[in-house]
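Protocol step 4 of 5: obtain the predicted structure for the target chain.
Materials: sequence only (see below). No template structures provided, no constraints applied. The aim of this step is simply to have a reference model before the mutagenesis design in step 5. Sequence pasted as it appears in the construct record:
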Amino acid sequence: MAKKSCAGLIAGGVLCALLLGCGSSSGGGGTVPPPPPSFTVTLSPTSVTLSQGGASQAVQVSVTAQNGFTGTVSVSPATLPTGVTASPASLSLTPSVPGTFTFSASSAALIAQQTVNVNASSGTLAVSASLGLTVTGAAVSDPLHLIGGMLVHGFYDETRQLLFVSNPGLNELDVISSQDFSIKARVPVPQPWGIDQMADGNTLVLGTQAQDVITVNEDTLTVTLHPCTGLDGSNYGLFFPIVVAMANGKVLMSGLEPGTDSDDIYESGYYLYEWDSVANTCSQIEPSAGNDGFFEVDSLARSADHKWAIFSADQFYLYSSDTNSMHTVPVNTVNPPSDEFGVRGYAISADGSEIAVASASQVTFLNNSLTALASTPIPGAFQTARTAVQFSADGQTLYLQYDMPLEIEEINASSYSTLGYITGDVATLGDDNLERLLTTDAEGRGYTGIAGELRVVNLTQSPVPNPSSGNSPGGPNCPNLGVALPLNASQQLSLVDTFTGSSVYVGGQPAPLLDGGTAIDIPASSIVGPADEECIGAYGDTLMVQAAVSYGVQPLTLSANLLPPTGNPTIYLYGYGFSASSGETPTVTVGGSSVKVTSLGYAATPLEGEAIQVPNGTPGASVNVAVSSSVGSGTLTAAATYYPAPTIVPASGLLQLLYDSHRSLLYALTATEVDVLNPATLQWQSPIVLPQPAAPVSYAIMALSPDGSWLVVGSADSHLVVLDPDQPAHAQLLTSSLTTSLSSLTITEFDQVILAGPRAVELDLSSLTFTALDIITGGIIKASSDGTHVYGVSGSEAYSVDPSTYTVQSVGFDLYTNGFTDIAVMPNGSQFAAIYGPPFAAGDIAAFYNSSAQYINANVYPDFSPPDDTSVIGATFSPAGKVLVVPLGDSIEFWSTARGTLLSRLMTPEELHVWAYPEVAVSPLLALDSAGQTIYAVSSSGLTVLTLPEPLDQMPATQWPSAYSSGGARFGFQRSLASRMRAMHRKPKK
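Step 4 output (structure tokens):
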């Protein structure tokens, strides 16, 4: 059909225009203008995936003209992710000829998943097209390894390719492979701290937070203790935290009095000591005679050839092992111009030819004659406490370790110029005040320790340039995840803040940032449990985050492994995946029985804790714990065991318990009598009624002679009852005029009663006469079972008393607000433990001493069996001395005497009797039978009798798992003895 038009239709022109769309361009009856020329842009493909350092990808760009467009179009991508480039940077296209961009990602490109605009313009015309851009990659080899405890110093053995790390948080030396970083051995060592290798290349020497120097054979891992006691002429003894081994067999050590603050440096001291490994003798080197002014040595450093050592104190010291002599210069010489902020760290090169001394603002390099060569300004204030200064193995680079966050500044040791920093940090739930560079190796790896984690840092990578502000940026930008996911499930998580500039990996898998860094795509995993987060900046520096995400449900452990079949106490369950949101409560069964669950409310971490109520159970049964939540389910097999059914014997007013192994009877003291329990029948026999003076008194303490022939009972005002347990009717009432106050008493092998108080008094049981003793005892005094050794605690002092001569040997910590609260003595007297368990804190600190009153170890709590109740008086050793028993209000702790580690925790069926100020409690409220298998404890409704599955000396050790720690202080009783005490009560600095 012919196309209609308005030609020739003059009379009907208006109608024609209306019908056929004809008209003019002017006025209401004019023509409609044509649309303006324009264009569109098309991409092919519309999305690309790039791999870091991988092949490039081409994207074709086509321009399509519209409405007669004939111009030229300029096309370019908008802002690209860091490390991603487009070639060419822009294209000039016409509608008939397409162009191509080639996109590529460098090896340092940030992994991402985002939309990039490709913008096109021509004159005033502008359009854009969207390109989906994904960058993938693999996590760098910068591993993080959970060790547990507290890592403070390390030594890397190049010959054996082993890393040795001192771990006072677990009372052990950890031996770690540098190939796969697996733990080859956990060697029991009491309170290890500093570590070095002797010149023989085969023996490690360890300084400790106890009063020993320790050597370890690297092949056999045999541990040898070398006591160094009584060297400073004080009653305190010394710790020897830092050691350096010299070529002449001498070991230089810092000497630290327990309780001194020393600028918050855990390992500095006011003395320099020398252990001669050949003669096995210890002697004080500094301060020397006539140099009794201020002297403090914060650290020690030596050359790799063991010939030179340096340290700073009142002067700067250079020690030569060849001549066994010291060379000194004023501190101003090594820290010019005026030592304004003090020397804060130092290192010496492998051959001793170069020395570096760091202050707050500079590093001064010196030669072996202590002549300054150059001073280099450093970014940010270098701190006094917890820092490390080390040369690289080739001496070309100096490392300065900054902490919180842990960053390693690099300085060229030839040109004396700063190079930049490398992040060595691990993000934790709380600050770890002991985060530090442990050591380095010749391969360019740095080993850092934070909150029980070992991180391996590549020091050969290019450092990040120092910020112009001088302030540390704190490492790469890293989002806080803290989520729990089901197995094999990914999740896109919205972020509270916008995160850019970092590649993020979870469990070694890419976790791309989305939508400009406002969200993240967390990858799926088929591996149950926690996964670390790794954030890599544009320069390759890496920040690690412990257990940022967890997958599935992984119950780890219960806080107690021995449960009562009745009583229903509350314990704690720890693990991962218990809830996917803050309001979720998991379903928990113990031995198939559902239990009440209350969240402990850990914040911003997949690690969770739940308080659960123990259900009734079958004695001897081992039970599983099953947990179900929205992210899955998991089972903890053989989580705990129900011990034999306890018995609660009704009683009231019990003040002390004492087991008579000669007669197999239990004595329970009240204010007026001694109740007698037959353990075989658990029936009370006729009590021993105690005679009273004219003005009645309340009896509070008692002791049995080693041969069982005498029972002595005393009151606080020094009234004493002496009797033969076989003939109690012949009891005699005595009153000492030599003392008006009695705090404790004990009986020696010579049938001598030592009465402790403001004035010590002896009662001779053969003559019933009193003699004043010229010794200070006070507090609690206790003899060994055979009466051959006598020990006591008074305030912050622990002491021993020779029962023959009454010579007192004491050691004090001078750290406590209220002093030691209890004491336990090994049956043969070879060791004792002073207990600090104040009523204002949960748990206890046990300081172990040998028969010379030398402090030899301390207890260390595992992460997953925290104390949560007050200490109960009555700590005691097992019959063979292998186990220290410490009661708390809701549980009984069993500690390994040899290691100071928790063997087991038993929950009691009801609350034990705890004490509170102003009560003065010294009498034991717990007793063991002679086999060490039955425990008697004063409890809320009477006398609780507990029978263990096996005798204490046969008790196996519970394998407590390690946790991702929150700085080691979650429950206030972690870390070494010295730092735990120091946190409670600080002694003024000298």
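Step 4 remarks: The mean pLDDT is 88. Residues 711 and 797 are 28 Å apart (CA to CA).
Proceed to step 5.
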